[in-house]
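Protein 1 of 2
SEQ + STRUCT:
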Amino acid sequence: MKTMKKFSFWFLAALAMLAVSCDDKNDGGDNGGGGSGSGNEEVYTTLGTQQSKDNAGNLLANTYDLGNGNQEYAFKGDVTLDASKKYLLRGWVYITEGSSITIPAGTVIFGDKDTKAALIIERGGKIHATGTADKPIIFTSEQPAGSRKPGDWGGLIICGKAKNNLNEMQIEGGPRTKHGGSDDADNSGELQYVRVEFAGYPFKTDQEINGITFGSVGSGTKIDHLQVSYSNDDSYEWFGGTVDCKYLVAYHGWDDDFDTDNGFSGKVQYALGVRHPKIADQSLSNGFESDNNGDGAATEPYTSCVFANVSLFGPVSNPASYTEQAGAEGSPVDARFQAALHLRRNTQLSIYNSLIAAFPVGLIIENDKGSTTQDWAEQGKLNVTNCVMAGMVKNYQDAQYWKDGSQFDDEDAGSFADGYFNRAEGGNRVFAALSDLGLSGNPLSLSAPVVFPGSDSPLASGAAWTEEKVASGFDKVDYIGAFGPNETAAANWTSGWCNFDPQNTVY
């Protein structure tokens, strides 16, 4: 890993917010010292004394610092924030083993741009972030409305003690933190009704802090109702672990919406991905990217996660004109988008009852790095079943191909992926255009995407739950994709807590 300057922050909150007093916690260790070696008493005496400043140096009303710029801070103890205050998160902080941070509903935390702030929950640490539909917890950029960008701050990392296929791993994004163990039921806390906006810090190639990163997080952790918007890398990435997730939104991310690696084996139901046509990554942007591990080794536990009721909307509104326009000056779509599903390197991921739409390529099942990914598909260990594909420029390809700025290989007809997706027992269907889906509006709207099928849509019914991988642990809904037919209160699980225009929101 590349050596780099590490940042973290001190918790500067009101004394009353602490679970224990400074006298009780001042044990002379590094509980509050971080890089400076100070004790807790020194740290705690500064709590609440600094307020955040705007770019002109003016104090922001009722905004309290969560950092003072020190280079390293490993927090020990329990801290509870105050939803009546706003916080500025500065640098990288580690919630260490045996410690916890509690973030109540409605709390707003601004990520510091200068220090690329990140909150890192280490193995044995816990985060209790329980928002509500009416009062979500918000992590966002400190920049003013209209000036925010992907990568304004680092992101949220949660690490646990569940299994991965490399035993103990350094978390991607580079902090000191490791993850992995043997406790698949490990509990890292709760993350519910939480938004993470304008995060992501790629400090080195293939070493990025994502919007939200899960490292070997166990099934005892509760994850639901999350929205990651304008991440500067993947919106979500799982490295091993067994955690189950529900109700995830990946909105206008830079790289992949959902990236699964190193033996992730959890279940995910109800997930929405919506892309911005001008935001794509040089590493090539996909809806799903899934590997067993980076070198394609056949190492157990396999990446065998199961996704159901996913709706992925790529950036391509007009497939017929895409190849002429992609990469050209004034093109409506960035040329670095790739596939809705890029499944490779011995992954055994499964996706059921889902919609993939509007990407340059629909499905790639690739035997790269000597893997046997296609064999897993033939054996039913990798599954793309009972799904709908619509509005792709090219439906199938059997290998990643980039030459002369193009992801399309005219010599690769995608024969394997084609035959696999259209197998009689797969239950998959293909439509030429987004308009064939019978949606109630435009899913590619840049500020108010409409993703609901009408009652006569081919997505409104037809889900199947007969295969073993989806026989238990999932809601047995009738519809394909993340939402039921028609925009009703019951159907719209994004209502109230999601924000599809965070750039212009004043917090």
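Protein 2 of 2
SEQ + STRUCT:
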Amino acid sequence: MAEAGSSTKQLKQTLGFGDLMGSAVGQIIGAGIMSLLPSALAMTGRSVPFSFLVAAIITCCQAIPFLFITSCVRLRGGQYTQMAMLAGPSWSGMYSICYILSNVSLAMYGLSLGSYLCSLFGWPESTQKIVALVALTAFLVLNLVGVDAFAKVQNLMVIVLIASLLMFGLMGIGKVKWDTYFVQDDGWMMNGVMGLLQAGGLLTFATGGATMVTNFSAEAKNPTRDIPLVIIISTLFVAVLYGILAFVGAGVLPIDQIGGSLVNVAKHILPTPLYYVFIIGGAGCALASTLNNQLATSTKPVMAVCDDGWLPRSYAALNKNKVPYKIMTMFYVIGAICCVSGLSVSTLGNLSLVLTGVVGVIIAISTSRIPKLLPEQWAKSKFKVSDGLLKFWCVVALAGSLFSTYMNASSLDTNLLIMNIVFIIAAAAFGVIRGKSVEMTVSYDDA
């Protein structure tokens, strides 16, 4: 078992660059490309590949603070440690509540995978919840075995996923109707520049996720070198891949025939055997890899939350495989309850949308403090820049976070927006009140 206040120090540092890349790519490529592309097409038409470019730029802007901080130290508590270092106790308490609630998305991925498998194999819709629970349980067992087992399965799924998506893109790119693709009357820029930007804001949900790899900092072999590179490379790689998929998805069939996903396009361009390879290896592995990765990464920030006393320190106990089994089981139970009870996962997830944006704004502003907080580590960082340039990049990150926050807020109905505001006030109050009795510990090391 882990000693109180030292649980994150006991994690095994076994993840290399390839493992971290598999984690990041698997987290980014989730249900977004399958489910959001039709909505983006409705906003901007065939210019949707350029909306993915806008989304990638916004995502990279928001990731800038992560590049600076992860290049300096090993963040044993991942994103929580980042917030604790940069913003202090009260904001850390607020973030802990936000972070725990945001992980109800485990249920969303589980239910999506259950629905997908039921549709693929023709199982009754009534079995969706059971299939989701079985999938969630299987990944819980895998992750309890240890981070090495997680990495091996994750890397395999990501290889199959990328191969399936590349097959779709390369076999479909030659069937795009290029002669009419850029004709406005045929769907190009159908809502002008604003439509393209709105679609870009929506698609940040599909291009984001690489910064989750920060939560593996305690288990990475060389976090200050690998994590910043993984965030940059994985985001840009997936953005290019999405661009290819978007050209095929938008250019092969008339927009009104594409339907709710890429499946109709895949039926049109792929032979039947390869179509099933795409369905299983593309959509299936996209959902499964994201579910697996989130279950693995979700525990590390909460371990640091426990170490600091926001939650009982005993919750951060490790099993013999150095896995925080109590925290992981807590997330599993939350996901399982949401899966089987019929609770609105989307509503629960939307409760923290604006708060998540506020957290991004706080981190963007606070990142300019790095030279004062970590003078020696900052001097050695490969991402070190002058104070003026650091402030410039913080402003860029702030602009990206504000844009994303605005897009998220504008997508909510009035009731959900009010609930978000109430939740922000409640989380902030928790941070201020509970922060008076916690003992913040140093949860970062030189690496």
